[in-house]
Design goal:
This protein has about 70 residues and is α+β, with helices and mostly antiparallel strands. The protein has 1 helix and 4 strands; from the N terminus they run ββββα.
Length: about 70
């Protein structure tokens, strides 16, 4: 998904999403971007899989078979 960074308001970034709807998002997600920039928001399958594996490993240490 691509969004257009409209402006910053405090800790929020106001972005235009497809369909010309304006929404607020945490400004930290747009670090380094400036007003008017088009920003791509893309899934990261490799990072998602790594996090899932890490959580599964943590859960095995917590769960005890009964």
């Amino acid at each position: 998904m691509k969004v257009i960074l409209d402006r910053f308001e405090g800790n929020s970034a106001i972005v235009e999403i497809p369909g010309q709807k304006m929404v607020a998002a945490p400004a930290v997600l747009f670090e380094g971007a400036k007003e008017g920039d088009v920003v791509s928001i893309l899934p990261d399958p490799a990072e998602t899989q790594a996090r899932k594996a890490q959580i599964e490993k943590m859960m095995k240490g917590v769960m005890v078979d009964q």
